[in-house]
């Protein structure tokens, strides 16, 4: 932090703590932004006129559950941005952090701060010093327990089967996104396509994604085209990793899938969606072997996301 220009969002108590820490760490300048711009603070709009900013720290509740998805800044306005910290701890990845990651900027969640606060409170209450590793270990265990796993991939690649087995292995709730859509609309998926068309289905799908992805401790099996709507990938990633199940087109199941009309159609679909799956996922899982092997690979991919 020495020599860096820091922008702190918000003017509450956490702002005061963060500002003091930044100054003690040798920040060149600490700017403050707020909704009103009073008491020497910039407005969020005016803050975006400071391209020299290197670090952004959010101390407001913007983007916190249940108001997931809100964001105060356009990060493209900060070409020298080096890091973003969001003190919000639910969800794990706020919209601010997701936008930072998309720009290749290191992004950090406030959940570890929450754990550290609890550890220091316990030390103060008991009078006993806890091992230094307790914060990192507790943070990892809690995040593993609370995290979702979203599963994406081509129609018929085995997402539902893998999802059920993975949920059982990880001790999480299994959620089939198509079943949520059918419950919300009162119609089977093929009927939605036949009566209202794909555009209406995608709207229902996005509503279901927004609803389900706010919750935690779930394995979410998604429809094959969920990644066609840009906001869905962000929503799915806010509370855990996204795993991309891969299976050869020739081995995809096609029954009851409105858009899986033949091998040529599937090949064309795969070519169109491949870049979207790649961009949306944290890891790929091969599904050409035995189910137990695929699930083991998925568990390993899930665990690896906490060591990154």
Helix/strand layout:
Layout: E1 5-9, H1 13-24, E2 29-34, E3 42-43, H2 44-47, E4 55-58, E5 83-86, H3 95-102, E6 107-109, H4 111-126, H5 134-146, E7 149-153, H6 159-170, E8 173-176, H7 177-185, H8 189-196, H9 198-212, E9 218-221, H10 230-237, E10 242-246, H11 263-280, E11 283-286, H12 291-304
Helix pairs in contact: 4-5, 6-12, 7-9, 8-9
Question: What descriptors fit this protein?
Answer:
12 helices; 5-stranded parallel beta sheet; globular; Rossmann fold; 2 domains; transferase; alpha/beta; EC 2.7.1.71; 308 residues
Provide a short characterization of the protein structure.
The protein is built from twelve helices and eleven strands. By secondary structure, the protein is of the alpha/beta class. The model has no long low-confidence stretch (mean pLDDT 94).
Domains, number? 2
CATH superfamily of the largest domain: P-loop containing nucleotide triphosphate hydrolases
- Determine Rg (CA atoms, Å): 22 Å
User: Which class do the helix and strand fractions yield?
Assistant: alpha/beta
SS summary, helix count:
12
Q: Strand share of the residues?
A: 5-15%
Low-confidence blocks of residues: none
Q: Give the overall form.
A: globular
- The helicity comes to 40-55%
CATH topology of the largest domain: Rossmann fold
Spell out the helices and strands N to C.
EHEEHEEHEHHEHEHHHEHEHEH
CATH class of the largest domain: Alpha Beta
In whole angstroms, the N-to-C terminal distance is: 22 Å
Query: Roughly what is the average pLDDT, rounded to an integer?
Result: 94
Strand sequence of the main sheet, in spatial order?
3-2-1-4-5-6
EC number: 2.7.1.71
Protein name: shikimate kinase
Pathway: Metabolic intermediate biosynthesis; chorismate biosynthesis; chorismate from D-erythrose 4-phosphate and phosphoenolpyruvate: step 5/7
Family: Belongs to the shikimate kinase family.
């Amino acid at each position: 932090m020495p020599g860096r220009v820091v922008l702190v969002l918000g003017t509450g108590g956490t702002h005061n703590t963060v500002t003091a820490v930044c100054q003690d760490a040798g920040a060149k300048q600490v700017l403050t932004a707020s909704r009103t711009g009073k008491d020497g603070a910039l407005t969020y709009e005016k803050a975006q006129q400071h391209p020299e900013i290197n670090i952004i720290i959010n101390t407001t509740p913007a983007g916190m559950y249940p108001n997931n998805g809100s964001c105060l800044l356009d990060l493209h306005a900060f070409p020298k941005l080096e890091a973003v910290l969001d003190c919000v701890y639910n969800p794990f990845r706020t919209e601010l952090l997701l936008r930072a990651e998309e720009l290749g900027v290191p992004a950090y969640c406030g959940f570890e701060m929450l754990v550290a606060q609890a550890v220091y409170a316990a030390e103060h209450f008991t009078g006993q010093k806890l091992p230094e590793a307790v914060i990192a270990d507790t943070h990892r265990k809690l995040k593993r327990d609370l995290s979702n796993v979203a599963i994406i991939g081509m129609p018929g690649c085995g997402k539902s089967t893998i999802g059920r087995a993975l949920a059982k292995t990880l001790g999480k709730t299994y959620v089939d996104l198509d079943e949520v859509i059918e419950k919300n609309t009162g119609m089977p998926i093929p009927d939605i396509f036949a009566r209202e068309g794909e555009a209406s289905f995608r709207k229902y799908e996005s509503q279901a994604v927004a609803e389900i992805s706010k919750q935690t401790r779930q394995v979410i099996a998604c429809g094959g085209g969920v990644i066609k709507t840009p906001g869905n990938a962000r929503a799915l990633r806010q509370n855990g990793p996204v795993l991309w199940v891969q299976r050869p087109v020739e081995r995809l199941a096609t029954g009851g899938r409105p858009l899986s009309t033949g091998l040529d159609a599937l090949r064309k679909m795969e070519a169109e969606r491949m870049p979207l799956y790649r961009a949306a996922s944290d890891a790929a899982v091969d599904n050409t072997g035995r189910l137990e092997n695929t699930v083991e690979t998925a568990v390993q991919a899930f665990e690896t996301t906490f060591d990154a």
